[in-house]
Amino acid sequence: MLKSPFVRLCAVPLLLGFAFPAAAQDDTMAPIAIPEQPGAIALPTGPLPDAPAKESWHSQYGSVFARNVTSATLTPFLPDPAKATGSAVIVAPGGGFRTLSMENEGWDVARALADRGVAAFVLKYRLNQTPAEMDAFAESMRQMFSGASRPDRPSPEAQIAMIAPQIADSRAAFALVRQRAGEWKIDPERIGMVGFSAGAMLTMATAVAGEDAKPAFIGNIYGPLSAMSVPEDAPPLFVALAADDPLFGAMQFDLIEDWRAAGHPVEFHLYEQGGHGFGMYQKETTSTGWFDAFVDWMAMHGLMSPAVTAGG
């Protein structure tokens, strides 16, 4: 069980992590075959217990999503050695712990990081089960957003327990990257994490989860900004959110103030427009610039200059 720092962060119901773009893209869900995922490495957390529905994928918003993930994987996107910085980022897509935006908030982010010389690793973490049939799944999501099936808010302790499998997957991902840091030419002291929506919740949880995780830096992209007790060794924090985000845009920015009050570095970008789930979608809003801002922030912290790597 996690200690108290994460408890207050979980005050937002976990159902509110589902990612969707504000742009007028086709929101029709269409089943697709499970795509090839070359290089994906199975994590040792094992299959999700009591999960009869099998992993399946669908297209939506011009992108691809996974759901009913029962076994976690980590997929490396390594940079050209000629421009490798030695830094690394574990990428956690969002989707309300019911689905994963694998392309927009996973692969596309990782490719862009690798192009900048940063080793990136897309975490396909285990998910809460949803109906196997696409129509039933779509209806369950509609009901969730209409409030028809939203349960009473669980206690903070219950919410922590609800994401225990995902936290275990994240910690296993960090252990794997550190174990193979020499092979992948990564400085084990420069491994960070960036997450989107529910993935941002997971990123914040990982930052306080234990010694074996300890990201060197973290990015919270349109996740909740609820208050939390900030650990003494909290890493630098980058936050990006759109003011018109229908889920978190109207919240107070307690997380930012808590980080500042604790004396830890934090950079906060509040974009006028962008909605929720903008990720790597190219839109006519300034929120599209979050990625360049994130890389510039990494550079400001000395993470984009080549470093001596383990075994390198």
UniProtKB/TrEMBL annotation:
Signal sequence residues: 1-24
Domain Dienelactone hydrolase: 104-284
Keyword tags: Hydrolase, Signal
Keyword match Chloroplast: no
GO MF annotation, one: hydrolase activity
Record InterPro entries: AB_hydrolase_fold, Dienelactn_hydro, GDXG_lipolytic_enzyme
Coiled coil segments of this chain: none
Source domain of life: Bacteria
Claim: NAD is one of the keywords in the record: no
PANTHER family in alphabetical order: AB HYDROLASE SUPERFAMILY PROTEIN C4A8.06C, PEPTIDASE S9 PROLYL OLIGOPEPTIDASE CATALYTIC DOMAIN-CONTAINING PROTEIN
Protein name as annotated: Alpha/beta hydrolase fold domain-containing protein
UniProt organism field: Allopontixanthobacter sediminis
